[in-house]
Design goal:
With 168 residues, this protein is α+β, with helices and mostly antiparallel strands. The chain has four helices and seven strands, in the order E-H-H-E-E-H-E-E-E-E-H. It has a seven-stranded antiparallel beta sheet, with helices on one face. The radius of gyration is 16 Å and the shape is globular.
Length: 168
């Protein structure tokens, strides 16, 4: 199932790239999502091309009822974001992969980080949400789409918290 989101971040494009690579942001995101655990590793430097791998453990109390039998009381999400080196204006292209560990569900997509003024940027995400479950897959994808969208949108709140905690 196709997914398209545009996130607005209260940070310049270069500052947003720095944020993604900062372990402090992983913890802010953990709190924003209500995750019980979060870890991240970074390969490369956000001044150039870099990859961030994050693992989040989240309760499933907010997932759709029809999805819950497949995931139990918590779920581990592995996310990988790979970003290109910045263009002259700070814009970047990237790819993302999100896997729900122990399930046949995941998201793959492309991202574009673009400046939207001196102190803001946007992240455009286009992806495919897939649940490889015979017969139920399309229904599970449709049920999970609003939840995945909520998880992605939490990034806007986490970015605002990050900016506030790093101001000054």
């Amino acid at each position: 199932m196709k997914l398209r989101e545009t996130l607005t971040l209260p940070l310049s494009a270069p500052a947003a790239a720095e944020m993604y690579a900062d372990p402090e942001y992983t913890q802010i995101r953990r709190r924003a999502l209500g995750a019980t655990d979060a870890r991240s590793t970074v390969e490369g430097d956000p001044a150039g091309a870099f990859t961030v791998r994050t693992e989040l453990t989240m309760p499933t109390d907010r997932v759709p009822d029809m999805v819950r039998p497949f995931v139990g009381s918590s779920v581990t999400i592995r996310e990988e974001q790979s970003w290109s080196a910045p263009q002259a204006d700070g814009a970047r292209r990237g790819s993302m992969r999100l896997d729900v560990v122990g399930t046949p569900a995941g998201l793959t997509g492309s991202m574009r980080l673009a400046p939207a003024g001196e102190q803001s940027s946007t992240v455009e995400i286009e992806g495919d949400l897939v649940a490889k479950v015979p017969l139920l897959g399309p229904r599970l994808e449709k049920a999970a789409l609003p939840y995945v969208s909520t998880v992605l949108r939490a990034e806007e709140r986490a970015a605002a918290t990050y900016r506030e905690s790093n101001a000054g």
